[in-house]
User: Fold these one by one.
Assistant:
Number 1:
Amino acid sequence: MTNRERVLASLQHRQPDRTPFQIDFTQKAHARMVEYTGDPDFAARIDNCLLRMDTGLPDGWREVAPDIWEDEFGVQWNRTIDKDIGNVCNCMVTPDNLAEYEMPDPHDPARYASYEKSIAEHPEFFSLADLGFSLFERAWTLCGFETLLMAMVDDSDFAHGLLDRILEYNLAIIDHACANPIDGMGFGDDWGQQRGLIMSPETWREFIKPRIREMYGRVKSHGKYVFIHSCGKVDEVFPDLIECGLDVFNPFQPEVMDVFAVKKQYGDRLSFYGGISTQRLLPFGTPDQVREEVRHLLKEIGRSGGYIAAPAHSIPGDAKPENIAAMLEVLQEQ
């Protein structure tokens, strides 16, 4: 089977010849592995299964000051500490300027110009168009985290208005991306923390659920698979996500949920992507512990498909290179 065939079989809850996997790195972890392996191109030989394509503009980011990067929404990110994402350091949208704020153009063909060629050149991969910071995260990056959460309590007109502007943009992105021969759409939207949702389930169902139902439904209308990346303990809304049409949940963090119990409860209706501990196992375990845990995940979570094995996030810089190598050994030797 090709890696694309493995992913498709797994998402159809059929047992592939081996469990598909995807390993991504933060810049620090990548640099440590280059030093450990002595191979600057080690990542190209991992045999990952996903071909990710951005929905952003190719020139959508610019450095406006040393380590300050501005995205196409006008949001500025301080990357003096976190080189991969950064911390928002300005405010673009307020209740006073929401109506006048100009969203980027989702119809710009430059966003999708590389899709057809990339897919044609890499037919062995499952192709996924990524729309990160897709709703809640996009809103708080524009107006401020505390501002958005407070608005959900005492200024719902502003919160709904901002989320509707983002939804309109997202639906256009989805239609254009799905007009290409991709296999799925991936969304990023962190709703959780270590102990539960950031907001109450009722608030999530008022502000988030109706809009993701539209987004996921639009993807499904094009015959594509729906992926969501949402960090934290958000399993209490798994039934809602399934109802909205979700196919694949990531990052599937073992630190915040019992991944084996979750697979048993929802595995006939939902596939999982992640599951390998990045908070405990990879930084603090031993290579033998890593091998044992990864084999256990492949055997139990990977049974009957429904699983893409992966670290529960892009591998952080404190992960031990020898543990990463042990994980790769198990995944590659299936």
Number 2:
Amino acid sequence: MMEPFQCWRDLLATVPGIGRHAAAAVISEIGVTVKEFFPDDAHLASWTGLCPGNHQSAGKRRSGKPRPGNTHLQTLLVECAWSAVRHDGYLKSLFHRHVMKNGGYRSATAKKKAIVVVAHAMIVIIWHIMDTAKPYHELGAGYFASPQDPERETRRLIAKLQALGHTVTLNPAA
């Protein structure tokens, strides 16, 4: 039954953590023409139920439960996310970043929250693969370690030092 969709299944299998069977299950849930039903990746994430919850009142942001969504796809992507964080790369560094943000590796809640973040990232990656018909491009494990814009990072650090009362002069490196 997957023969007409074999090329799509192989494209989805390029994502770490997603195997051939998981790719087939994703295709069976969302189809191959995702742009027709979901105008952007946020709509697909919302439909899946993997978007972050939002509860704001009087300018305060409180803990928001995620939306109910497609339970078949949610559980599949969470299982794929657990597999993906075992491979070095962007998804593992994303997991590590959010675990440390939410309490560290000793906290089961922190790991569960972080794995939902990775599953959300995976559904966004899936939407882009299905939209562009290009395989997954690994951003690398050091994606969060190095600043994306060195000039912006320099300006930010200078402003931080000036706010602390220091005078900053820059000399070009030799």
Number 3:
Amino acid sequence: MITILSGGTGTPKLIQGIKEIYPEEEINVIVNTVENDYFSGVYVAADIDTVLYTFANIINEEYWYGIKDDTFITHERLNEIGYGELLRIGDKDRATKIQKTELLKNHSLSETVEIQAKSLRIKAQIIPMSDEDSEIKIITKEKGELDFHDFLIKYQGEGEVLEVKYSNVNPSPKLIESIKKSEKVIIGPSNPITSIMPIISIKGVKEILEDKEVIAVSPFIGNAPISGPAGKFMSASGYETSSIGVAKIYESFLDKLVIDEKDEDLKEKLQEINPNIIITNTFMKSLEDKVNLARVVLEK
């Protein structure tokens, strides 16, 4: 059994490769929930839904958000009548979110996700990091304190980030146990600050990780993240915007770090932090790339 720590873009790509070569029923995925919130009257757990859709083979691979070949009739109509919906939610995707919103009236988030995973015939166990409400704020030089989605969508991630703040929450019921039972923990190439740090900052998680084999895939090639504003968040949090910064964040419990072949010149510096550096292609453009990277992280 393995446990994967996941955000909503880079790690699901790796999951696509892993589920091709590893039994799905032996995969646990702990998913970031700090960005969850209500939009247009529905509960949006974007990272969780992306992981659900990835396992169900219906993910929109152009944006790594939503369902492939979805329509946007409701979204477009809302804009026509002057509502101005912040998130572009597809019609099929909205149905998932409406169901989740209704289920949450009588179930915890963990129970809700379990019900939805079962309806999608997913064999893996998808575990929200917490069942508690949380929030994340981005402190910017130009606009002050912003909600996470306003920073990403309304302002397109522009401006200087001074600080990233998120609330501390308690672990969901199955989080600790899933890590304890796993042979290996994989930290996917998601944003280290806003996707992975909220998970590993939960009480008790780092201590368990210290007793496990942990392998992480860096989301950086050179000084730039493969996608998203991870660089700004890393810099604001006091870390170098490269795989060196990633290694520093995970230093206390990390056994191996996988970096891209273009970063081979960083190997010596990285080995001062962690002696076990693996170099391979981490840019997952095709399914073959994803499977090859999955084989690397799953090697004994």
Number 4:
Amino acid sequence: MKNAKERLLEIKNLIISFYSYRGIVKAVDVDNLVLYKGESFGLVGETGCGKTVTALSILRLISNPGIIERGEIIFNGEDLLKKSEQNMREIRGKAISMVFQDPMSSLNPVFTIGDQATRVIKIHQNVGKKEARERAIRILELVRLPDPRKIMGVYPHELSAGMRQRVMIAMALSCNPDLLIADESTSALDVTVQAQILKLMRELKEKISASILFVTHNLSVVAQTCERVAVMYAGNVVEVGKVREMFKNPRHPYTIGLMDSIPKLGEKAKELRGIEGMVPDMINPPSGCRFHPRCPHTMNVCKTQKPKMIEIEDGHLVSCFLYGESRQV
């Protein structure tokens, strides 16, 4: 595995907005987020928190009416936001690949699996059709699809959901990317198939020494697959840390609320606690800390100032006025 402390990706001061007829949706406001080489990293949050938009911005796939207002996305030492569109086309699929939630919306229904897998390899690896086909078969074998040569000749609708997802993973890995982004890539699958896909991705990560960014609302996926995790709320990253530490000792009030909403094995049956209040309107988000209207520990400063991300323990960061130098009344 590559050096776990060597930075692969860093997102700095990223602001993304969507211009709608109702007003400007302030979707993402991320101060700093780091992904190291060779690690599995989770980006978790409820629906609408901005995690998928953040992931899409890495590949510069934010389309109208969305705009990246400002920020830096440093990948292998270079700012992707300064790259030309031609440069980004070369990076997409080769250095950075993405697996989406629904493979049927990503696979072309009128082309065979072989046509699509071969084309990806030909575009990014500059090889002939015959060599590209053989590489495609090998990568289908790698993701444990039965009879890969036969599958090369079938169409997406002829495969099960789990098999289509394996095809998408195979295509994403076919060019040995440095970073694989998995956006809710198992949420449409049943539990047993989901477990198989997650196990497969863990094993493939070790074989190709890639970093994986898991974008999910499912904390169990994070627990099974990730080494570190970042929690998002209303477009902001509120806490980052090692998965084991975050599950054992969450610090941000929102993260604590998330953990309290999970049933615990071995505990006596009790009523699950939810988070009071409603998710904010992102056209008019709360001032200061965006969680303060729902937070049980709100102070006056929370209503007017956005807390900075501070390190409270080794590798454990939190954006909250309850901790460290940010503590105010």
